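Here is one such tokenized protein:
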Amino acid sequence: MPPKRLTRAESRERTRERLLSAAAELFAENGVNGASVEQIAERAGFSRGAFYGNFADKQELVVELLDQRMRRELAEVRALREGVRSFEEMLDRLRAWNSERARHLEDWFALRTELTLYALRNPEVRPKLAERERLARAAHAEGVRERLAATGAAAPADPEFLGLILHALEDGLLTQRFLCPDGIGDEVVVDAAELLLRSWTALGRDQTGPT
């Protein structure tokens, strides 16, 4: 059978995805300011006109890329928590996910750094980056609440604050893992998160008293 012909909407979506993927590669390689519209279009296999048929300018593409990465990461983390039967199983899933991410850590770290720098230099983009950070912190806070509720422990502090600590710790450890890989394993983020969550659970149980 001949291949199914794409609808106009499907074709447009595929074109946008290829442009976003090409931009992500070039931003990681050369920086946002080091990648031109022409280079992005060429890497994706399109013309300059195809780029402007999907994005008003490079800044609009950067915002869309931030949004895409945010949605993708949150979907992956939420999928990890589906059907989890124990804390240990959750840790095993997170270790596997972090080991897979470590295979692409250089590209991931370079792209994230470039997008952050772009947002710092272009204040109008910062709200999108801030939204991404808030959602990531909220996901960590949700995980903290679930862990404490499962053990009957009280929260030793505002779960939103605990989520902020986990998120900041993850960022810092991944930076260290990238810059100083010797002696820092792929699972360092999960090891640190486990230590904190077990400590917070014990502290929360002390606050609730004997059961």
